[in-house]
Amino acid sequence: MTPTMTRADAERRIKLGAGDRVAVVAGSGRLPVNVAEGLAEAGHSPFIVMLAGEADDDPKLASFEHDRLALEEIGSLVPLLKRHKITHVVLAGGVGRRPHWRQIRPTFALFRILPKILMALARGDDGLLRVIIGEIEAEGFKVVGAHEIVPDLLASEGPMTHARPQKGDLADLDAALAAARAIGALDIGQAAVAIGGRVVALEGVEGTDGLLQRVKELRHHGRVGGRKRGVLVKCAKPGQELRADLPGIGPATVDAAHAAGLAGIGVEAGHSLVLDFGETVKRADALGLFVVGLQAGGAQ
Amino acid sequence: MTPTMTRADAERRIKLGAGDRVAVVAGSGRLPVNVAEGLAEAGHSPFIVMLAGEADDDPKLASFEHDRLALEEIGSLVPLLKRHKITHVVLAGGVGRRPHWRQIRPTFALFRILPKILMALARGDDGLLRVIIGEIEAEGFKVVGAHEIVPDLLASEGPMTHARPQKGDLADLDAALAAARAIGALDIGQAAVAIGGRVVALEGVEGTDGLLQRVKELRHHGRVGGRKRGVLVKCAKPGQELRADLPGIGPATVDAAHAAGLAGIGVEAGHSLVLDFGETVKRADALGLFVVGLQAGGAQ
């Protein structure tokens, strides 16, 4: 971590007692690794539940005590946690696919919550996460957010990089933030790209990588062509369940934003995660991109 | 036109006098052709201003009296209209690119409105259209909407096809309509696609064709995979300048929606255009898709 990162959010950190043990339910991406390493650095030995097809084959994760679980075996999660005497659970990382329902291994616990899960799926990701969190807590575990375990992951306000937004970038940041909030309110996506003062692309299920790939291709589009710079903004959904699915960026986001010809990235301070912080900032500095924390609930 | 098309909007038709002459400023797509043919059928001989790079080489359009104009010569539009004793102007069709500012042929009229145009560009398409319409009207012409010339172009309420939305499609129509309205309010796009009850993709500058192409690719995405059906919804922006840029669908939209695996299309009744109506419905019927007019200001 660099000195540009404030520690104002450090008080959010969960106090873990001697008998406490944290399980990291690990999806894809760098967040599970960051959380596990943060726990280890603080002297706590994490237990990793690697979601098959998402987190498997990560040697860093596999270096901790771990087990694998297919999405279809999700009904076995609670028994697994109990067997390992887990007290706290962190849901970290992405889950890019939906379970194959026909392959789900039936358990009594699962049958009990299945109607809730189906209703939640119809309401979108956020609804689903709330149900899963509620069910895990009903079993006596405490579900905590990645940022409550490793507060340094939370984006701080202001520029994190040498580069800062130029005057024209501010209009892009405003426009993209308003758009990201609007689609977040509908539980569609968390990210938007603005170029030349107007929003050109919005995130759907394709995710931020797919969004940036599209922007790269749109550079040749008649309505974008010739315009330089532009920004990516990611922000949390209004009223989002902060213990899961916080928007995040990392080194790969910086690379993809640069490949899309963007000048920088804005994230909502206090409500977004910057993964592999040192590496992310280093990469952005090397490429001349800015990464800036935007005031939460600011520009609308 | 088929009997399923109501004529409730026919009273919107502009009454043209003997000395009136309508110019169709023609961008890309089928709308200029539909408007020109509608005028000709009503006994009015249209004058077509074909925007170079957008409407050129359309033999149907070229069969009417016409002239060509590059976007960069837009300052010559008013003199051209005056020369042909035009009284009414319809702006019809898409303009996919922005003018090359350096190639713009300067005229005094253009220099006068350039600051307004630049400000309007920054506010998005709708702002730009308002400025252009205002300037043309300030020169004494009456700018009318395509639907005021050919009211049958407007989508009516209810199903236009043999196929009708199934129960599951109604949730998709609601979700996509709410999303399309939200991004329309931000002047980003006019269309959204929902599959399995949730919005998966939103229109940006790539346009509806690009959106549907993306949905086709997303069919293999983990979060969409396995789900059938889904809908495209297009709707007008709230408070949209109805005399230009009304959302439209046509036979090509039906083909692209079908290729994307969608079950149907919803358009906002009274605020959307169905181009080549007979052909559009015939194509949808052949493919088993529904096309339905949604109550304007209905589901939110």
UniProtKB/TrEMBL annotation, chains A, B:
Residue span(s) of domain LpxI C-terminal: 157-292
Domain LpxI N-terminal: 21-153
Protein name per UniProt: Phosphatidate cytidyltransferase
InterPro entries: LpxI, LpxI_C, LpxI_C_sf, LpxI_N
Species: Mesorhizobium alhagi CCNWXJ12-2
Top-level taxon of origin: Bacteria
PANTHER family, sorted: BLL4848 PROTEIN, LPXI FAMILY PROTEIN
Pfam families noted in UniProt: LpxI_C, LpxI_N
